[in-house]
Specification:
single chain; mainly alpha; elongated
Length: 406
């Protein structure tokens, strides 16, 4: 991404964003555009019609824009002005101060085709947003007789690239640590934060959140520690950073409703403390032995549903995607996509662990086999058998992870 040499500052007094160049000089026309669409909720669109004499004519007409669309367009314009400023610095040109007459080819070819599609790998939604934002901006300038009409578009020959970029983004099931943290912080309650963290930091499936029990329990003739026991251990052993808990197979995935494989999970101290904070401050009074409970009026105090993780993820995903579309600081992170699911948190946890174990064993990720120690350890953590297909998936996800983190 280009360096932010163009500043965009929100003016509460004027109800719009104000633009400044790298010398802190006001960029008047982008600011006027921001003021116009923010206050009116409308943008200029070019319409063609035939007049009473049968002659084809064109005129600008105002169209209503949603508040979300207004925010998207202002932020996309900001990105373009930043790119143009950095372009000037690299090419020793001066297009930013005279961007009203910038050549159409510079916008369409060098910015949209070469930069957004080829260099940034922008998908279909991003290209539509960028093109629409710049079209409405230059329409505004033309309607005000400040510029000639510009037709903003990408070259059709890049349609295949855009489709490939879109599929590549949608197929990536690894969520970066920074993005996961942003999702945790966007949760509306301690319970929902815990549910998300259980996926991203313990590798739990959504249904496995029900397996966190308060009291000790018997499993295959052996007494296993519940969370209340682990809380006592945490208080006694102030240096212990990880606490073993047996997740019973009946709360996991299995065939024909018979449950899955029981497995050990290792709860980090900070997460165990978060469990206790939820228990003390937010958990409804109940006799249930499950840690995580419903708080809705018609189901208060009952265990959460097996798909609660998916519901929480979908809610937070919507919030984070909205923030990213609106140019919030989260927009600098990996983009959250509509097809990302709660299960992606589990994949991300396994990918991090697989990379960690390969590094500890000094084994290149690409050379790890299904019988390597890394895969065997991840297999136990995840509660499944390793197959060649799973092996290939984790190797690819580690490579994807590295591409995101670069």
């Amino acid at each position: 991404m280009p360096h932010d040499s163009v500043l965009k500052i929100r003016s509460n007094e004027h109800g719009c964003d104000v633009f400044f160049d790298s010398d802190n000089a006001l960029l008047l026309l982008p600011t006027f555009f921001s003021l116009h669409i923010s206050r009116t909720g409308q943008g200029f669109s070019l319409h063609q019609f035939v007049d009473n004499n049968g002659v084809a004519q064109e005129r600008f007409e105002l169209e209503t824009l949603s508040k979300t669309t207004v925010n998207i367009y202002i932020n996309r314009l900001h990105q373009f002005l930043n790119w143009l400023s950095n372009y000037d610095r690299a090419k020793k040109s001066e297009w930013l101060p005279k961007h009203t007459v910038v050549p159409q080819e510079l916008i369409n070819k060098e910015y949209i085709d070469d930069y957004l599609i080829e260099k940034c790998g922008a998908g279909k939604a991003a290209i539509v947003h960028h093109e629409s934002a710049l079209q409405y901006y230059y329409n505004y300038l033309a309607a005000c007789n400040l510029s000639t009409y510009q037709r903003i578009h990408h070259s059709p020959k890049y349609n295949i690239d855009i489709e490939g970029n879109t599929k590549a983004r949608n197929s990536l099931k690894y969520l970066s640590k920074a993005l996961r943290l942003a999702m945790y912080e966007s949760a509306t309650s301690l319970r929902d934060e815990i549910i998300l963290r259980n996926g991203g930091e313990l590798g739990l499936r959504t249904r496995e959140n029900l397996g966190l029990l308060l009291d000790d329990f018997e499993h295959k003739g052996k007494r296993e520690a519940g969370l209340t026991t682990l809380w006592r251990e945490m208080k006694i052993n102030d240096k212990q950073q990880s606490f073993r808990f047996l997740l019973q197979g009946k709360y996991s995935k299995g065939s024909r409703g018979r449950g899955g494989k029981s497995r050990e999970i290792f709860i980090p101290r900070y997460l165990l403390r978060l469990y206790h904070k939820y228990f003390e401050q937010e958990r409804p009074p109940t006799e249930s032995n499950h840690l995580l409970l419903n708080n809705a009026i018609n189901a208060v105090g009952t265990p959460i549903q097996t798909n609660k993780g998916s519901d929480v993820f979908a809610e937070v995903r919507g919030k984070v995607m909205e923030l990213q579309r609106n140019g919030n600081t989260l927009s600098s992170l990996q983009a959250l996509e509509p097809d990302h699911t709660y299960h992606c948190l589990r994949h991300s946890f396994a990918t991090d662990k697989f990379e960690q174990y390969c590094k500890e064993d000094n084994v290149p990720v690409e050379k790890a086999s299904a019988d390597s120690r890394a895969f065997l350890r991840v297999s136990r953590l995840m509660g499944h058998s390793i197959t060649a297909k799973t092996t290939a998936r984790y190797i690819q996800l580690v490579l994807d992870k590295r591409a995101i983190d670069e």
